[in-house]
Design goal:
alpha/beta; Lyase, Ornithine Decarboxylase, Chain A, domain 1; TIM Barrel; nine-stranded mixed sheet; eight-stranded parallel β-barrel; 14 helices; binds pyridoxal-5'-phosphate; binds lysine
Length: about 450
Amino acid sequence: MTLADVLPSMGKSLRAKLDQDVWPLGTSIGPDGLCVAGVSANELATRFGTPVYVLAEDEVRRRCRAYRTALPEVEVAYAGKSLTCKAVLRWVAEEGLSLDVCSAGELAVARSVGFPATRILMHGNVKTPEDLKAALAYEVDRIVVDSLDEIAQLGALARYPQRVLVRVTPGVDGHTHKAITTGVDNQKFGFPLSGGAAAEAVAAVLAQPSLRLAGLHCHIGSQVSTVAGYEEAARRMVTFMGQIRDTHGIVLRELDLGGGHAVPYLPGEPTFDLTGYAQRVRVAVSYTAATVGLPVPHLTIEPGRAVVAPAGITLYRVVTVKNGFVAVDGGMSDNMRVALYGAKYCVRLAGRQSNAPLRTVTVVGRHCEAGDVIAEDVPLPTDVHAGDLLAVPMTGAYHHSLASNYNQVCRPPIVAVRDGQSRLLVRRETEDDLLARDLG
Ligand SMILES: Cc1ncc(COP(=O)(O)O)c(C=O)c1O
Ligand SMILES: N[C@@H](CCCC[NH3+])C(=O)O
């Protein structure tokens, strides 16, 4: 079973009309164009301008529930790096999820909405003293330590018993893009199991009187589409827990297996097998625990992309069509993923219907880079012209959070849609915002 199967069936018929699996539940296409959660794309563009990130609240909530249903005994910590804003953190808190933050900035947003500190973990291969102090001041439940320097610094700053997890690199390849492969040795995250670095980190934490070692963490990568890597990582991690018991006489109770569950960016791409993941990881953990004679640890997972990516759509206005390029009013400042990972997206005419034949075009942005591409070689009607509205689905994760001011372009707003209503969550950046930081 897949995430989509866990969701109610209603969305399938609507998605079938769009002939794609990449739109939020409740998205439809009619004579007046695209309609998301009962709100038309034309209305959104008129009211909020373009480019605009549209976020379907029910899709986010449904995905939170799908995780909780598939893994009721597991702590599901939303990875805030994928999209942090006050409303989204409120939604995931209301849906009973925990939160993974990786900076004082993300924590500040969590704090501003009163996200319970008992359900927050802090990550990061580089945590500055400010990050650590912010985490300690808010009394976050767990800090996932990532270097010996950090263990020493945290030990000096913290008061007993600050709970920590040690981030372990299990030597497992998630078979994803190199830039987001984090489970193998020779990259900047965590302590490798091989060569004894992880064992050394465990000893270093145990030597700090202010720290309490609660368990272990690993994260094998992002946009990981198969379950086998998670199973193998789980086996290696529990085996290591057995070695820690043998060496230090302590039984660790917590195992965090990270996030990384893939989503389909293009119609027809496989959806992450959440039910299979739940079953196979459970078996891997409990079998290995029984083999080494440990109680089954309490599991945490940290999905980000799989919670918010499918809830997001970006709307752009076409500014010009020339030389086989359709150029829009946004670009790499609101979608870095094409330039970073060669990511592929589909594009849909959103403001009207067209019966014109399709032709292959490349949708490009407004920035001063030839690599500023939104979608390469995609079919669009031949009559697409300046002023048309285009929609790009699957933009809820790592779009707003990776957005920049390149060329002093202002970052787009985030608008939530639900039950025929729209609500501005994050306003568009203004030139005044840009000038406010520039002290001359
Ligand atoms: C430690 C950690 N947890 C969770 C995530 C979330 O990943 P994703 O959004 O792919 O689920 C990341 C990002 O890859 C991460 O680095
Ligand atoms: N930014 C990446 C994912 C990084 C995951 C965070 N560790 C993406 O858009 O796919």
